[in-house]
# Entry
Amino acid sequence: MVSIINPILNQSWAEFINRNSKATIFHHPAWLSVLQRQYGFRVFAVCTLNPDNAIRSGIPFCEVRSIGGNIKWISLPFSDHCTPLYESESDLLEILDYSIKNINPEGKYSIEIRSDVSSTHKLFQRKSDSVLHIKELSNTIDNVFASLKKTQVQQPILKGMRDGLTCRVSIEKDSLKDFYRLHLLTRRRLGVPVQPRKFFDEVFENIIRKNLGFTVLVFKDKQCISAGIFSGYAHTLTYKYGASDDTMLHWRPNNLMVWTAMQEAVKRGFTYFDFGKTDDENEGLRKFKSGWGVTEQPLYYSYYPVVPRNSLLLTLKNKLAAPLIRHSPMFVCRWTGEILYRFFA
# Structure
């Protein structure tokens, strides 16, 4: 039997992901709560149930409406990847069939799953324009450090410490002030809108406060020059957001920031460190991540009924908003994010 449930309120969803080895923070009610509370998305999961109503397989979704009113079911917005959790191919096929038949048929509609399901259901088409970087962690910090590339990663970490860089792992809300200041600088440098500050407040309340994440801050002479937000569940710690002061990058603070998070991952018993997705053409970021001994693999998204073309909104962001943000005061970066960011889901 297939059913739609509320994975935030339904305790069976929490029990289901707790016994599923492939679950990540993106399946967790805490992350789904962030998306619902910040952006007002309808959050639900399409599941197959056992005779006793226990969940056997499932896919979490958010229902997202475009500026033009088109409806899309996305699994999941602002998540780099979200693997369906299922016992058998027949379960997955049943869930996908049900999703196609039950998405609101009023006007234009579509489904996007941030995983490859095209081999299971022929009506879904896949596309990849990015890669995923995952590192399998050893059970000791020394073994993990030995697996890193010497000149690309090990030496900058050691030099940073010799040069006086210090690091702090924090679960305090005050750490978000330093992170968000650097986040604004980074996003303006890249010419992209910034997530609203309230979004990160929700991340703190729903994830960090519930011991599902932490921040890492890097300091030079008491000035915070790099920061990251990490969240984890089950076997995987995910590097979700990173930011830095570009005038301080000669100190290579991001290396020490990631290494500190990786040590924390080992201490907390995680098996995998997820660096997230990287666009194919971003050779610099791919090179940075490759130095950490990661496995790189194509990241496929699946679409129904067709693979979408680049939207007008995306074109406006890249062609018009990016130059405006780069050459405007900081409040413009924040303002565009407050108004538009939910539409970039």
